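Lab notes, practical 5.
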Amino acid sequence: MTNHVHLLLTPMAEHGVSHLMQDVGRKYVRYINHRYRRSGTLWEGRYKSSLIDSEAYLLTCMRYIEINPLRANMVAHPGEYRWSSYAGNAHGQDNALLTPHPVYRRLGSDLTACRHVYRELFRAHMDHTAVHAIREALNQELVLGREDFKDRIEQMTKRQTRPARVGRPRSDGVEEPASDYYVL
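Output from the prediction step:
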């Protein structure tokens, strides 16, 4: 996109995504700065990431990313966007950066059938609930998946996978002593 990038990655190492983003931040920024005789950073802030339940959301996320240029009125069809992986996923155009995910491979008996089914996914509009879920998970850096998947990830990582409750924590019935000092 003109102001952001979406990457859908399957890490092959424990810190694969964070190390990849560090390398991009070092090498690509150095290349751009040298080529265009500039200095400084290219991005405003740290990247955001969200762990995805592939079985439930991989294809939805692929569609979300590849339809993004349409939502931004940059193209009339996802295949028209130069930087999209749609041409590789839907038509088999060679792209060294793409490796078909096992979920994608299950769309058909061979890659030709997978591509056909993948193209068919784009005939229907994306569900607004799914778009909202993807955006919420990414913006809050939470897990995108089914409840049992989120439960497993919470147990494995001891980290929050769902949005926090809004408001003050509930009192356990014990009142704190009054204080002469207040923090504003």
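Observations recorded by the TA: Residues 49-157 form one domain. The CA atoms of residues 106 and 114 lie 7 Å apart.
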